Amino acid sequence: MPVNHLFFRMAYTAATTSLAIRLINSWTLNLQAFALTRVRLEQFIICSYIIHEDESIGLDKFAQYMPIQRYKGMKVAMENNSLREHLKNFRDLDELKEDAIKAQQEFMPGFSCENDKFERSWTKLSLRSLAKKRDSLVPADPLMKHPLEREYLSVYKVACSIIHADCDSLSYNFIDFFQSPSGKPVLMPLPSLAFNVAACTAHYDIVQCYEVLNRVGIPPAREYHDLMKQWFNVRDKFKNKKA
Q1: Which of 43, 146, 165, 183 makes the best surface tag, with the fewest CB within 10 Å?
Q2: Are 212 and 10 in contact (CB under 8 A)?
């Protein structure tokens, strides 16, 4: 797959995820929108890290891992008898295995299925470590300097409660009773989540589009800096209202 096309696919996935977030957020499904914002942030972190990291460490490993991931996913699915009967008519597991072995040999020359194991992931770094490394690699461009590790520690970790359906996702941190127009109490997500979701998504979109355009050799227009300036103005107005 051509390198630029890979980044265009990342941008497409990012844009459509953001569209889904805005759509469900507009229907006051703020809790679900916040959960999807976690997905959006992970897309942003991975894409941004790959853009700024040395190609042999980031982009090459990311692309080389695709056949391994396909094979491992299919192999696990075929452990289920009913799934195996369905999947064997669509994909040849042996063929996927051959492709995975070739890819693994790029990671580990001399690899053999009998003596070795496939890589667990395309990188040994955790998502937080990817964000932290990305923050250390970005140039002194004011639009890119916003630290993604901070986003991970705040947005990502908080949204994990909703993704994993833990007890905190049912607490007053996320859901409370509010008075409806009829005067009856209604259980619903905190209204402030709607603004947080919209603000985070817009921020990730602006910076990721800017970085992708830079990476594929299309100089982004000044409008991205203007958009980010508007973003900060809206954020500050909201903070002042809350104060």
Answers
A1: 183
A2: yes
